[in-house]
Amino acid sequence: MSESESSPPSTDAQDQPGVKIYSLSTCSHCKAAKKFLGECTIKYDFVDVDLLEGDERKAIVEDVRKFNPRCSFPTIIIGEKVIVGFKETEIKEALGME
Q1: Residues 6+ apart with CB under 8 A from 9
Q2: pTM: predicted TM-score of the whole model, two decimal places
Q3: CATH number of this structure's domain 17-94
C-alpha cells in the first residue's frame, strides 16, 4: 500500500491564507483572537507590539498604521483582508470557514 492510499493528503495548510496578528500582550480582545484561531487549528504569526522596544517597536507600529491608521489592537491580517478587533464572523469568512 502506498502512502497516499494509507493517509489522504491534507491541503488545509496550503489553502489557508497567511494570518498575522498585531496585538498587545495585555489586550483581552487580542488574547481572544489568538485563542479562537488556536481552537480552529489555524496557523498564525503574531507580534505583541507592547513588548518591543526602540527602533523595532517604531518599525512595527509603522507597519500596523499601513493596515490600520488608528493603530488599534488587535489588527488581524488574513491574506489581503484587514480585520480590526476580534470579529469572529469576519475572521471565519476571511478564512473560508463560513
Answers
A1: none
A2: 0.83
A3: 3.40.30.10
Domain map (residue ranges) of the chain: 17-94
Regions in the chain scoring below 70 on pLDDT:
1-14
pLDDT at 32: 98
- How far apart are alpha carbons 11 and 67 in whole angstroms? 29
Greatest CA separation for the chain: 57
Q: In Å, what is the CA distance from 20 to each residue of 2, 25, 82?
A: 36, 15, 10
* Cβ partners under 8 Å of residue 47, min gap 6: 20, 21, 22, 23, 60
Neighbours of 54 (CB within 10 A): 7
